[in-house]
Design goal:
- The chain is an alpha+beta fold.
- 39% of the residues lie in helices and 12% in strands.
Amino acid sequence: MTSSPHEHARRSERPRTDRYRWERARGQIAAFGESKTLREWAADERCAITREALRTRLALGWKPADAITTPRHDKPDLTYTHAGRSLSLRGWAEQSGIKYHTLYNRINAYGMTFAEALEKGGGGPHFAIHITAFGETKPLSHWAVDPRAGCAYNTIRRRLAQGWDAEQAISEEPQQRSGPEFRTGRSA
């Protein structure tokens, strides 16, 4: 069904209702017979999520006690092993440069194995880049998940753009680590 230009104009003039009411996450928030600020609830040992997630849940109208104590996901973290290395799906997404949802959909919606999802690589111009190192030529996303890789896709890509030798760009460990598998509060 197509709409006329007049109908479209009328619809766009209607006030848009925002489903977030951010004022719900401000000031004192009552739960468990106590009143605390968002920051204080986020630091409370009963809080199962980040401050931003708590703020969003409250703005969406969750009951404060549920917003505070409900874990972010009921599903266990998706962990996959490839080339002798185990990471969460988010960790592999960062490592390979392939978007999390792309990997997730390839596995869960299209029935690919994890290896097939990685092998397919990502989309866009950066994924067409083929690198020769260690006597082999393959896409950058494949080098990022190679057992010889000492860093993630974006680090390798940035190093190559800075003129690093391909083997060194792939294999050298970063000075400081960041990312899902390294957020332990300690530097490497």
